Amino acid sequence: MIRKFKLILLASILAVSWTNVRSQTQPTIVQLLDTAKKNYPAILASASLERASEEKVKSTRRLLVPEVSASTYINYVTYNNITGMFFPEYFLPVSGPPSARNLNDMVWGSAAGLLMKWEPYTFGRRNNEIKAAESTHEASTSIKDLTLLEHSVQLSSTYLDYLLAMQILDLLESDQERSRSNYEQAVVLANSGLVSGVDTARFRTELSKVKINILQQQNTIHEYKEKLSELIAADLPENLADSTFLKVLPRLPEVSGVIHPKENLAIAQWNAAQYQFKAEKLSWLPTLSVWGTAYGRGSGVQLDNNGNSFVNNPTDGFNLTRFNYGLGLQLTMPLTQISRYKTQWKAKEWETEAYKQQLEEVRLTLNKQKTIADKALETAMAIARETPYQVEDALYAYEAAQSRYQAGLMSFTELIESQNELITAEIELRKSYWEAWKALLYTAAVNGNLEIFLNQL
């Protein structure tokens, strides 16, 4: 009684220890997903674009800040003028006072100043531009999430393919042992005269076929490993295979309340189009601007007491001697552009409607895919529960056929057919579990939540 109690206690301790180890160690697929998230170029590119759109939002919000420009210049011009030389922006510099007579002499002139422009009120345009930028940022976030989801699903799917290939390799190696055993048994039976000597050659052929299948399967595994390495953009870990995967069936998942990144993307694009349309529709309204300037200028031209201009020292134009400043309000109305603006906002209106219909299409497609995924998972689970009976029956039939062949009561062909039925049933069992996990992964993909798949590892 005491010994039995000790064995139960030891088993409980080992079970708890194993549970703790499993809880502290991430499954291999989670490690691969974490590595891909850090390394894969497409995922990193989508994250960079998201950050870029975030900076564009900040830039759009700063449109409320007054625009202040500083400028300076030096020129060498004639002073035979009234308004001076014309420059296209910031200020209208002059080379000096008007000359009493026509002079083509040239002197130095200079100017430095600040020009301020502020649009405190835009009749709603700026607010809609900011909201459009924010919606565009939400769209870039959805693109990042969608890129990560699609890549994670592809990586997980490839990993499931790799695990199935590994299990099929194990089954083929077991089948190789059966073929070798049958070949050796046939040699013994042929030497004793119980079976034809031809059977040994035929068994050796079957053994060769299994060896070829194993070589082909090993090549398939190599291709999957290279694909996995590509998908994580790094070398694979040492222990790649998960011995617990594909040996248990997943559970039917609970309904996910997560909005799919595709739907989020379509919503954000529709919202951005709406705000752009509203901003475009307000483009015909006036623009209210506050202007301010402060500048100083220097000129090589001077005036005498009689109002005559003269040049004492041309380099005096480098010294700022006159200073001005001022403020002003400006209200502008695009009178002749209203018809053009109307066609522009009509175009935006149709674009907005197009994005709305695209959103409806995404929702329709996702809803149908969810229905298909739920049914596919349910069917895969039901099939996987049936396949163990096929393996059990095939194994029983093979063992019986093997005994009958050894007794000389069955032909070579019947034994080989029984062996092929057994390996086929064993592979179908593994495939049925693989298809159930694939169906769960598809369910997670169409719900936009990979945790539906990962939570059952």
Set out the fold topology.
Blueprint: H1 2-24, H2 28-39, H3 41-61, E1 67-78, E2 106-118, H4 125-192, H5 198-232, H6 261-281, E3 287-299, E4 301-303, E5 309-311, E6 322-332, H7 338-406, H8 412-447, H9 451-454
Antiparallel strand pairs: 1-2, 2-3, 3-6, 4-5
Helix pairs in contact: 2-4, 3-4, 4-5, 4-6, 4-8, 6-7, 7-8
Keywords: Cell outer membrane, Coiled coil, Membrane, Transmembrane, Transmembrane beta strand, Transport
Protein name: TolC family protein
Coiled coil: 207-234
**Strand content bin:** 5-15%
CATH architecture of the largest domain: Up-down Bundle
Shape verdict:
elongated
Helix residue percentage: 55-70%
Q: What is the CATH T-level topology of the largest domain?
A: Outer membrane efflux proteins (OEP)
Q: How many domains make up the coordinates?
A: 2
CATH C-level category of the largest domain:
Mainly Alpha
The named CATH superfamily of the largest domain? Outer membrane efflux proteins (OEP)
SSE succession? HHHEEHHHEEEEHHH
Structural class category: alpha+beta
Q: Give the neighbour order of strands across the main sheet.
A: 1-2-3-6
Number of helices: 9
Unreliable parts: 1-24, 82-86
**Rounded mean pLDDT score:** 85
Task: Tell me the major beta sheet.
Answer: 4 strands, antiparallel
C-alpha-based Rg, rounded: 41 Å
Query: How many beta-strand runs?
Result: 6
- Terminal-residue CA separation: 38 Å
Describe the structure.
The protein is of the alpha+beta class. The protein is 63% helix and 12% strand. The protein contains 9 helices and 6 strands; from the N terminus they run H-H-H-E-E-H-H-H-E-E-E-E-H-H-H. The chain has helices at residues 2-24, 28-39, 41-61, 125-192, 198-232, 261-281, 338-406, 412-447, 451-454, and strands at residues 67-78, 106-118, 287-299, 301-303, 309-311, 322-332. The strands form 2 sheets. A 4-stranded antiparallel beta sheet has the order 1-2-3-6, with no helix packed on it. The longest helix is centred in the last third of the chain and has 69 residues, at 338-406. It is elongated. Keywords: Cell outer membrane, Coiled coil, Membrane, Transmembrane, Transmembrane beta strand, Transport. Pfam families: OEP. Residues 207-234 form a coiled coil.
